[in-house]
Specification:
427 residues; 5-stranded mixed beta sheet
């Protein structure tokens, strides 16, 4: 029995055992609530995604365990189509998103927000979204959701982009209660997530998964010591806009923000080692500037408009606050180099500066750590090693201890009252 058929059969069997009716009602949402029992039905499972082109129309077809609603729109700069869905459990192979056919150059998929998934289609040429159809396959009960893309000229695509309304409901902003716990708060940021996979290794491993596992290990390491309160910008495989990551740290009054990433240079597989970045309008070198530019495109890759977060320095008070924060950030970066050097390979320039959006908080000391290169087989093996991860997170914990132990005050830099607050972000 083919793998796809076996997977579909197991999904249907699991749903049947749970008492679910996976194919009832073509308009059902993946998280519909069973009113009688007050429980949410399981999310639809996607076991295949296929592309086919005929007569100038390219069709993307998802094979699902049950019917869900879908809506789509197109965006320019870069040209892409965005398909919003109810929550979907994507059980697809690592090569799926690399498929190319007709007007589709590639596509990404994942959890975009709680209860919502998204597919972002990179277009090889201007195209508009045509019919969206749902059909139940008689032989096995699978649901086929198909989305058509039709070639368009630039002006037609531009009109479709302007007419689209990509702004869904406002992302809910949780109110963080004031804490009486005086321990420093560390915000750990696992890069990428959801529809944004980040770098992809030759093996198919996603950066978002590797750095999330590392971030969880770092949180466990810090919590075990009992000296800090620790939070994460994302606690699962979900997309979080860049400026919202900054807002989460500021709203929580974090004392330190640590963003975890892993780079990739396919043209230079021999390059390896970790690099620690701090924020600056002027990059240390061209390589750092290109990396920051690439990371800052994460929102566009997920099908959202970028929100730059904190803007330019408005007055001398804000400038002084920002300068103090960057001094703290650089001090922490130096301690990281001291404690990570003995346990991991560092790059030729282990501390660099660049204009990363997630490092733009004016009042939270922030660093971004590139753990290594997914394009290096040696680095990739280490990044996926639990033993290596334990040693490196232990070194980071020691650097954090040294950072707070050397400060005469644990009070975070305070922004002046006139500084603008960060507005809640709409995906």
């Amino acid at each position: 029995m083919p793998r796809r058929a076996r997977l579909l059969r197991s999904v249907l069997l699991a749903l049947a055992c749970a008492g679910a009716s996976p194919f009832a009602g073509t308009g059902a949402r993946a998280q519909d609530t069973d009113k009688a029992h007050g429980t949410a039905s399981p999310a639809a499972v996607a076991i295949a995604a296929d592309l086919a082109t005929s007569n100038g129309t390219t069709k993307l077809t998802l094979t699902l365990s049950k019917a869900i609603e879908a809506k789509a729109f197109v965006m320019e700069r870069p040209d892409r189509a965005v398909i919003d869905l109810a929550e979907v459990n994507f059980q697809l192979g690592p090569e799926t998103g690399r498929k190319r056919d007709g007007v589709v150059a590639s596509f990404r998929y994942g959890l975009f927000a709680p209860g919502r998934s998204r597919i972002v289609v990179d277009l090889a040429q201007p195209a508009t979204v045509g019919r969206i159809e749902t059909v139940t396959r008689p032989r096995d009960g699978a649901v086929l959701l198909s989305i058509e893309f039709q070639r368009s000229d630039r002006e037609g695509f531009r009109r479709a982009s302007v007419a689209s309304d990509p702004a869904p409901a406002q992302r809910k902003v949780a109110t963080i209660p004031e804490s009486t716990d005086a321990r420093p708060l560390i915000m750990v940021d696992a890069g990428h997530g959801g529809t944004d996979p980040g770098a992809i290794a030759a093996t198919g491993a996603f950066e978002k998964d590797i750095v999330f596992g590392f971030a969880q290990a770092l949180v466990s390491q810090l919590e075990a010591g009992g000296r800090y309160r620790v939070r994460m910008t994302r606690d699962r495989d979900v997309f979080v806009p860049l400026s919202e990551r900054v807002r989460l740290a500021r709203d929580a009054k974090a004392d330190l923000f640590v963003s975890i990433h892993a780079d990739s240079i396919s043209s230079a597989p021999q390059v390896r080692g970790a690099t620690i970045y701090t924020g600056s309008e002027k990059a240390t070198d061209a390589e750092s500037a290109k990396l920051a530019e690439r990371e800052n495109r994460a929102d566009a890759a997920a099908g959202t408009e970028s929100n730059e977060g904190p803007g330019h320095v408005a007055d001398i008070l804000q400038e002084l606050t920002l300068r103090e924060t960057r001094t703290f950030s650089s001090g922490f970066a130096k301690r990281l180099m001291t404690h990570l050097g003995p346990v991991m390979e560092m790059s030729a320039k282990p501390h660099r500066e660049a204009g990363f959006q997630v490092l733009r908080s004016p009042d939270v000391p922030s660093v971004l750590v590139e753990l290594g290169y997914l394009s290096s087989k040696h680095d990739l093996d280490l990044l996926q090693s639990e033993g290596w991860r334990a040693e490196v997170t232990g070194g980071m914990a020691k650097a954090i201890d040294a950072f707070f132990g050397s400060r005469t005050s644990l009070t975070r830099p305070q922004p002046p009252r006139r500084s603008a607050a960060i507005a809640p972000v709409s995906p």
